[in-house]
Write a structure and sequence with these properties.
Elements: H1 2-13, E1 18-20, E2 34-36, E3 46-56, E4 61-67, E5 70-76, H2 81-84, E6 90-98, E7 101-109
Parallel strand pairs: 5-7
Antiparallel strand pairs: 1-2, 3-4, 3-6, 4-5, 6-7
């Protein structure tokens, strides 16, 4: 029963963690629980340059014109970015894929 409670707590608090419990545990002994945290790899960032084509604060997004024939919609991680940019501003953005969306994690005006 105790192992089930510990396993449930670990699954809720540390998703993706591995829980290892000895195969033969005597009821009178304390079970030794080892938590091996999943290896966390930092996400790769991509740096792009473009011009702000549209500010869509309602959807937490910016439309960036990357070239004369290509615009792309990016989610914004930090809403304070909306205070810093306007239509037509040349920008350099750092982009990561977060939860399946290309997301701006850094921005500087050029």
């Amino acid at each position: 029963m105790m192992r089930a409670i510990v396993a449930l707590c670990m699954a809720v608090l540390w998703p993706g963690a591995t829980l290892a419990v000895p195969a033969a545990v005597d009821e009178q002994q304390d079970a030794t629980v080892t938590l091996q945290a999943a290896t966390v790899h930092p996400q790769a960032s991509e740096t792009l340059r473009g011009v702000v084509d549209r500010v869509d604060e309602g959807n937490d997004a910016l439309l960036i014109r990357l070239s004369s024939d290509k615009t792309e919609l990016f989610k914004v991680q930090d809403g304070l970015i909306f205070n810093a940019v306007r239509f037509g501003d040349p920008v350099e953005i750092s982009v990561q894929n977060i939860a399946g969306f290309r997301t701006i994690v850094g921005l500087s005006k050029q």
